[in-house]
Amino acid sequence: MKxxxxxxxxxxxxxxxxxxxxxxxxxxxxxxEVEALERQRFxxxxxxxxxxxxxxxxxxxxxxxxxxKQNGKTDYLQSIRDGKSVYDKIDVEALNVxxxxxxxxxxxxxxxxxxxxxxxDGTPNVAHLKYVVVQVKDAKKxxxxxxxxxxxxxxxxx
Length: 158
Fold this sequence. Notes:
Residues 1-18 form the signal peptide. The protein is an alpha+beta fold. It has one domain (2-152): Nuclear Transport Factor 2, Chain: A (Roll), CATH 3.10.450.50. 39% of the residues lie in helices and 37% in strands. The protein has helices spanning 2-47, 50-56, 73-81; strands at residues 57-64, 70-71, 89-100, 105-116, 125-138, 142-152.
Protein backbone atom coordinates (compact mmCIF):
# COMPACT_ATOMS: atom_id res chain seq x y z
CA MET A 1 0.00 0.00 0.00
CA LYS A 2 2.80 2.43 0.91
CA UNK A 3 4.53 1.68 -2.38
CA UNK A 4 1.33 2.35 -4.28
CA UNK A 5 0.86 5.69 -2.50
CA UNK A 6 4.49 6.61 -3.09
CA UNK A 7 4.14 5.72 -6.78
CA UNK A 8 0.93 7.75 -7.06
CA UNK A 9 2.60 10.74 -5.38
CA UNK A 10 5.60 10.54 -7.74
CA UNK A 11 3.26 10.30 -10.72
CA UNK A 12 1.29 13.36 -9.61
CA UNK A 13 4.49 15.34 -8.93
CA UNK A 14 5.89 14.33 -12.32
CA UNK A 15 2.74 15.43 -14.12
CA UNK A 16 2.73 18.73 -12.22
CA UNK A 17 6.38 19.34 -13.13
CA UNK A 18 5.67 18.54 -16.78
CA UNK A 19 2.71 20.93 -16.81
CA UNK A 20 4.84 23.67 -15.22
CA UNK A 21 7.58 23.12 -17.79
CA UNK A 22 5.04 23.39 -20.62
CA UNK A 23 3.65 26.61 -19.10
CA UNK A 24 7.17 28.03 -18.74
CA UNK A 25 7.90 27.22 -22.39
CA UNK A 26 4.68 28.96 -23.45
CA UNK A 27 5.60 32.01 -21.36
CA UNK A 28 9.14 32.08 -22.76
CA UNK A 29 7.88 31.82 -26.35
CA UNK A 30 5.30 34.54 -25.68
CA UNK A 31 7.96 36.84 -24.19
CA UNK A 32 10.11 36.52 -27.33
CA GLU A 33 7.10 37.19 -29.56
CA VAL A 34 6.08 40.27 -27.56
CA GLU A 35 9.63 41.63 -27.57
CA ALA A 36 9.70 41.45 -31.38
CA LEU A 37 6.26 43.10 -31.55
CA GLU A 38 7.39 45.94 -29.28
CA ARG A 39 10.28 46.71 -31.61
CA GLN A 40 7.94 46.53 -34.63
CA ARG A 41 5.45 48.82 -32.87
CA PHE A 42 8.03 51.57 -32.34
CA UNK A 43 9.16 51.21 -35.96
CA UNK A 44 5.52 51.45 -37.09
CA UNK A 45 5.07 54.65 -35.08
CA UNK A 46 8.05 56.21 -36.90
CA UNK A 47 6.90 54.98 -40.33
CA UNK A 48 3.23 55.83 -39.66
CA UNK A 49 2.20 52.26 -40.43
CA UNK A 50 -1.42 52.71 -39.42
CA UNK A 51 -2.49 49.20 -40.46
CA UNK A 52 0.01 47.68 -38.02
CA UNK A 53 -0.82 50.17 -35.27
CA UNK A 54 -4.57 49.57 -35.66
CA UNK A 55 -3.93 45.86 -35.17
CA UNK A 56 -1.47 46.07 -32.27
CA UNK A 57 -3.41 48.61 -30.17
CA UNK A 58 -6.52 47.24 -28.44
CA UNK A 59 -9.74 49.17 -28.94
CA UNK A 60 -9.76 49.92 -25.19
CA UNK A 61 -6.11 51.08 -25.08
CA UNK A 62 -5.20 53.54 -22.33
CA UNK A 63 -1.99 55.45 -23.13
CA UNK A 64 -0.68 57.84 -20.50
CA UNK A 65 1.98 60.08 -22.04
CA UNK A 66 5.02 61.23 -20.10
CA UNK A 67 3.31 64.62 -19.60
CA UNK A 68 0.28 62.98 -17.96
CA LYS A 69 -2.09 63.35 -20.92
CA GLN A 70 -4.15 60.25 -21.70
CA ASN A 71 -5.28 58.94 -25.06
CA GLY A 72 -7.33 56.04 -26.24
CA LYS A 73 -6.51 54.19 -29.44
CA THR A 74 -8.53 56.43 -31.74
CA ASP A 75 -7.23 59.70 -30.26
CA TYR A 76 -3.61 58.54 -30.25
CA LEU A 77 -3.66 57.34 -33.84
CA GLN A 78 -5.36 60.58 -34.89
CA SER A 79 -2.61 62.56 -33.15
CA ILE A 80 -0.07 60.80 -35.38
CA ARG A 81 -2.19 61.44 -38.48
CA ASP A 82 -2.56 65.13 -37.53
CA GLY A 83 1.17 65.56 -36.90
CA LYS A 84 0.76 66.19 -33.16
CA SER A 85 2.76 63.03 -32.38
CA VAL A 86 5.74 62.90 -34.73
CA TYR A 87 8.65 60.50 -34.37
CA ASP A 88 11.81 60.81 -36.47
CA LYS A 89 13.44 57.86 -34.70
CA ILE A 90 12.86 55.70 -31.64
CA ASP A 91 15.81 53.83 -30.13
CA VAL A 92 15.02 50.90 -27.85
CA GLU A 93 17.75 50.90 -25.22
CA ALA A 94 16.43 48.32 -22.77
CA LEU A 95 13.53 45.93 -23.00
CA ASN A 96 12.28 43.39 -20.48
CA VAL A 97 9.26 41.18 -21.17
CA UNK A 98 7.60 38.91 -18.63
CA UNK A 99 4.81 36.66 -19.86
CA UNK A 100 2.08 35.17 -17.71
CA UNK A 101 -0.96 32.90 -17.83
CA UNK A 102 0.47 30.32 -20.25
CA UNK A 103 1.61 33.03 -22.65
CA UNK A 104 -1.66 34.95 -22.77
CA UNK A 105 -0.53 38.15 -21.03
CA UNK A 106 2.73 40.08 -20.90
CA UNK A 107 4.17 43.01 -19.00
CA UNK A 108 6.87 45.00 -20.76
CA UNK A 109 9.14 47.60 -19.27
CA UNK A 110 11.91 49.37 -21.04
CA UNK A 111 13.86 52.49 -21.80
CA UNK A 112 13.64 54.32 -25.12
CA UNK A 113 14.93 57.51 -26.65
CA UNK A 114 12.55 59.36 -28.94
CA UNK A 115 13.87 61.78 -31.52
CA UNK A 116 11.30 64.29 -32.75
CA UNK A 117 11.62 67.25 -35.13
CA UNK A 118 13.81 70.05 -33.79
CA UNK A 119 12.25 72.67 -31.57
CA UNK A 120 11.41 76.07 -33.15
CA ASP A 121 14.74 77.48 -31.96
CA GLY A 122 16.57 74.66 -33.77
CA THR A 123 17.63 72.70 -30.70
CA PRO A 124 17.21 68.92 -30.81
CA ASN A 125 13.97 67.52 -29.44
CA VAL A 126 14.98 64.31 -27.69
CA ALA A 127 13.12 62.51 -24.92
CA HIS A 128 14.54 59.75 -22.75
CA LEU A 129 11.67 57.64 -21.43
CA LYS A 130 11.04 54.67 -19.23
CA TYR A 131 7.82 52.92 -20.10
CA VAL A 132 5.53 50.08 -19.13
CA VAL A 133 3.17 48.23 -21.46
CA VAL A 134 0.64 45.50 -20.78
CA GLN A 135 -0.22 43.26 -23.71
CA VAL A 136 -2.86 40.54 -23.85
CA LYS A 137 -3.25 37.85 -26.46
CA ASP A 138 -6.67 37.83 -28.06
CA ALA A 139 -7.64 34.52 -29.68
CA LYS A 140 -8.67 36.29 -32.91
CA LYS A 141 -6.59 39.48 -32.97
CA UNK A 142 -3.29 38.25 -31.50
CA UNK A 143 -1.18 40.38 -29.15
CA UNK A 144 -2.57 43.81 -28.35
CA UNK A 145 -1.38 46.70 -26.20
CA UNK A 146 -4.07 47.48 -23.61
CA UNK A 147 -2.07 49.77 -21.31
CA UNK A 148 0.94 51.97 -22.02
CA UNK A 149 2.51 54.49 -19.69
CA UNK A 150 5.72 56.46 -20.08
CA UNK A 151 7.82 58.66 -17.83
CA UNK A 152 10.47 61.18 -18.85
CA UNK A 153 13.96 60.60 -17.49
CA UNK A 154 16.37 63.39 -16.61
CA UNK A 155 18.99 64.33 -19.15
CA UNK A 156 22.38 62.75 -18.53
CA UNK A 157 24.83 65.27 -17.11
CA UNK A 158 28.41 65.36 -18.41
